[in-house]
Structures are given as C-alpha cells and as structure tokens.
C-alpha cells in the first residue's frame, strides 16, 4: 500500500498494524450484556427478577469488562410476550419495580461508567394472542383510522381484510409463520414479524 493512501479507521499514516478502535463510535466497540430482568436477580422474594437485582449486580458487570447493560422491556405489559407486548411506555411494570428504581439504576450505572440501553420495542404494541384485541392507544387509533384517516396512525400497522377459505371462514392474508408462536397474522392485524 502506498504511504499516501489512508485506511478509513487506521490511526497510522501507513496503515500499519495498529489497533484502530479509537476511531470507532462507543457502540461499535462496546461489550454489551443483555438482561432479561424477570429471569435475573430477585431481591423481593417473589420469584421474579427486578430492577433492584440489576442494581445489585452492577459491580459484577464492571468486573466482567461490560460497557453497556441492555435491559429488556420493563414497561407496563400484560406479559404475554415476556414484556415485549408493551401496554404503556410511560410506566414501569410493578413486578420489576418503580420509576425511582429505574432512575437509581441509571445513576448507579453511570457512577460506574456503565451505559444503560432500555429496550423499548416500539413495534410490539399489539397482542400476540389471537383471542385478544390489543388495547394499546396506538393500536386502537390505527384501527379506527381505517375508517377515518383523519385520526392518524393508520399506517402504524399493516391492515388487510384477509381471505376466505373454501368454507367461507376468515383466514389470515398469507401463511407467514413466526419462529416463536405459529402464525404471525390473524384476521384482525399484522403488527410484527418475528
């Protein structure tokens, strides 16, 4: 390589063998540890992990050399999909703790130079259960907007009338299957693809 050529991420003039991590963004070189809170540490004896349990283990993450703790959804949820079926993005699910616990987690993590990523799963506001019509406000507004586009959010979900089988029964518009739970669609809505 000609010494006048520069490598995109190299720190030397001649692209020699030098660690170039210093040119990367923090998230490109960080060690990330994902925590599914309900299966992590239980501090209140109810058999489910909680935010206080994550706080108690922050020094453990530091000892492992972790840079970022990625917290799986801790928001209010009916818990049909391990908390990914979020019903309220503004409230912490009481089985995990309180908003004060989350604020304390963030403070304590930052005190140890750890970053926190909160998994918000914006595309999981509907329900995986075909027997339940999701109650989330975004879903309900989008559903009503099929008839009244002025409500907005019409395109926040995929809506399809579905099909009829040879017996006249409503069936999903296609045969897409989820890795986790059978059909990805029901006669009412498509809200995500697993």
TrEMBL record:
GO terms assigned for molecular function: alpha-amylase activity; glucan 1,4-alpha-maltotriohydrolase activity; oligo-1,6-glucosidase activity; sucrose alpha-glucosidase activity
The keyword Endoplasmic reticulum is annotated on this UniProt entry: no
Domain of life of the organism encoding this protein: Eukaryota
Classification of source organism: Eukaryota, Fungi, Dikarya, Ascomycota, Pezizomycotina
Keywords: Maltose metabolism
Designated name of the protein: Aamy
Domain Glycosyl hydrolase family 13 catalytic: from-to ranges: 34-193
Organism: Aspergillus sclerotialis
Matches recorded under PANTHER family: ALPHA-AMYLASE FAMILY MEMBER, GLYCOSYL HYDROLASE FAMILY 13 CATALYTIC DOMAIN-CONTAINING PROTEIN
Record flagged with keyword Iron: no
């Amino acid at each position: 390589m000609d010494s006048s050529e520069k490598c995109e991420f190299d720190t030397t003039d001649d692209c020699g063998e030098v660690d170039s991590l210093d040119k990367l963004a923090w998230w490109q070189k960080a060690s990330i540890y994902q925590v599914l809170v309900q299966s992590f540490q239980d501090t209140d004896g109810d058999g489910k992990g909680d935010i206080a349990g994550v706080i108690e283990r922050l020094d453990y993450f530091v000892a492992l050399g972790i840079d970022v703790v990625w917290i799986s959804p801790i928001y209010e949820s009916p818990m049909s999909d391990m908390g990914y079926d979020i019903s309220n993005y503004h409230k912490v699910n009481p089985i995990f703790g309180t908003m004060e616990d989350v604020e304390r987690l963030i403070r304590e993590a930052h005190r140890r130079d750890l970053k926190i990523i909160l998994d918000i799963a914006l595309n999981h506001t509907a329900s995986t259960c075909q027997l339940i019509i999701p109650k989330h406000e975004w879903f309900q507004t989008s559903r009503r907007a099929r008839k009244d586009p002025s409500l907005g959010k019409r395109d926040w979900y995929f809506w399809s009338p579905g099909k009829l089988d040879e017996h006249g029964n409503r069936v999903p518009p296609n045969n897409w299957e989820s890795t986790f739970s059978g059909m990805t669609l029901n006669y009412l809505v498509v809200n995500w693809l697993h």
